[in-house]
DNA sequence: ATAGGAATTGACAACGCTGTCAACAAGAAA
DNA sequence: TTTCTTGTTGACAGCGTTGTCAATTCCTAT
């Protein structure tokens, strides 16, 4: 192995010599520890500048028992979603400014094995903390492993009722809002394409819809068809095809995310069913695809980027030892009305 | 800072004691070094298993002067593209099995400052190698920095004529194929929505189209309108609107990627121009969006996932010191004919 | 048997940093 | 002034690995 690296990077020793202080003092400056006189601080900082010194992460990690690494853990299956890339960007934004590097670690989600895979990653890589998205975030055994190993983490999910360190929107309320909007337009025959069953947020959305319908006095049995989806465009296609074969076309379809809603529009288009005049279609998330469909999707906007940023912020605070006062945070969502919804025919 | 980590992970010393050998021998086993007897190897492996030992990356990194980290470097602007997520998955697939962790590092691409940002990352994080995508991969100064610091890397881009360590398809040839297909259908009035100008692959695609047209004896001045895009859906929308105001509607629009093609279809739809009977629209890449548009896009399929996997493979070999024989590899692409293209009207 | 060489193993010193603790300096209180 | 307190600094011992090199064992060919 030939290191053709000509200009070896400066070490802390070089800086110390250059500034005429001990390496420990340089270390203090680098780590922003208190009790360094202004004069020394200036000297050291000048030396750091002029040598263009950057601490060696491995050495730092070894000595301080930490890795300066934060892992984003998510389901391989969702790797292509705009949700995931938004999470990545939000987390990166905070982590990089806080001095952490970001590792991505998609795992093939499977209720039974997910915790084993996670444990392997933790033992091997030892990140200082993790940001976890659904459905991984919603698996009980994942939390067990994390707690046993004492690794801090924050989840992007509504979590259960007593869940801690979760960042989310109020999915139930948002879905309720969306459904109420459709009810106000005069809709009464609904179909809902629900998402991944292990995804707590997805169930919450379903609950919200039901709640709104019950509040409007509509018996669910007669007014709501439920079809299982898997969060993807393709599953939205399948679900809608199934719906069409059932023969009982609703006036409004609510898909629990935008990909599935786009799939629904696609199928309706194929069958010459007009959106929205024959059927209104609504999605959830305000992903880019919501603006790419024809007509554009009415949906719920979820500030994923901000939520991810905030989750990272929370995690970094935790790592610094500052137990944050609020450990469960809800962002607010917004109903975005576009062209895929209108009052039902004959009203 | 309280470490609530109860069961401290086993160290190499624990394994050595448990197996009754020296730590150096354990190290040999872990690193698959030669010259370890079968008996010792078994003993050590048993000990590793039973203690569930995983080497400490920081310590390994410090001692061996490497970080076991590979960075994927890309343009922030493209962070949401399916291209990027495909690259991530492809790279991860190989890296994880080769014992590397994958860091993501989007940088805001800007010709002038990109090399400074890169240098910062390299000094701070010291990844063992990088995988770089366009347009970052196509910036001259990026290569300079990398070579000065002696950090190995592989680019996913056709690169220049004498470029080394590049993995790509033959973009020019692929575009030529696509254009020839349209020519064979009878088209002669074209518009091309070109992509990011710093993107070598994009220019190659433009070249391929021109080449095919010239070969067909069509003077470019009269038969080809060129509009600038920026690789995004939105830029495809803008470009197409501009095209429409120019008043001279072609019979076929070729966008240099699928996002822009989807934008074009969107605008044509708004203007009640039928695709494909009024205008054929073709894209490039076979991104998921190509199947989500209505009608679905005729496009060129590029095996991004495989290319990324291969790029990672190449990089890892380089890191292992095996200078690979082929340092520039071309994958083959495929013309995917879908519903967005047909013979022009009146033929 | 016996020298010569190869295969196998271990002792020990890095690697670049942080934590601990002790030493010292500078004020503050007496 | 003396003593105590607080603030500032540095010496030194790790942190858990790998690289070097020497020691030992095991063959193979005389």
UniProtKB/TrEMBL annotation, chains A, B:
Q: Which SMART domains match?
A: HTH_LACI (SM00354)
Pfam families in the record, alphabetically?
Answer: LacI (PF00356), Peripla_BP_3 (PF13377)
Asked if the record carries the keyword Secreted, the reply is no
Gene Ontology MF: a single term: transcription cis-regulatory region binding
Name the UniProt key words of this record, in alphabetical order.
DNA-binding, Transcription, Transcription regulation
Residues in domain HTH lacI-type? 10-64
Q: What is this protein called?
A: LacI family DNA-binding transcriptional regulator
* Natural source organism: Halioxenophilus aromaticivorans
